[in-house]
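Notes from hallway chat w/ T.B., transcribed later so I don't forget. T.B. wanted the structure written out for a chain they're using in a teaching module, and asked if we could keep both sequence and structure tokens in one place. Agreed to drop them here.
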Amino acid sequence: MTIRLKRAAVAPAKGDGARVLVERLWPRGKSKSALKLAAWLRDAAPSTELRKWFHTHPEKWDEFRKRYFAELDAQPEALAPLRELLQAGPVTFVYARADDERNAAVALREYVLRRAKR
């Protein structure tokens, strides 16, 4: 199972596989055609409340992940489209946040890979 991460500001590449937007909000200034998405999994993104909380508390990365994983556990159907894409080949999570190390796409990748090992 291959999951790559890429900011929405970075142009799509041939090796991206299925590109999936994993944000609740559409990235500013990006057109649908520019992102070349296979899917937009807005329901798999953090809730609006959690997203806003993390925006004001970016230093609480571990707590954010804990809360986000609990949200994902509560709505497993939100990841159903992702499971199908992952079975077909590589997937690239597209995200808008400027922080490449601490964002919802990083957390979602961790969550999906952990669940796949079970």
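Follow-up for T.B.: The two ends are 13 Å apart (CA to CA). Might be a good example for the class.
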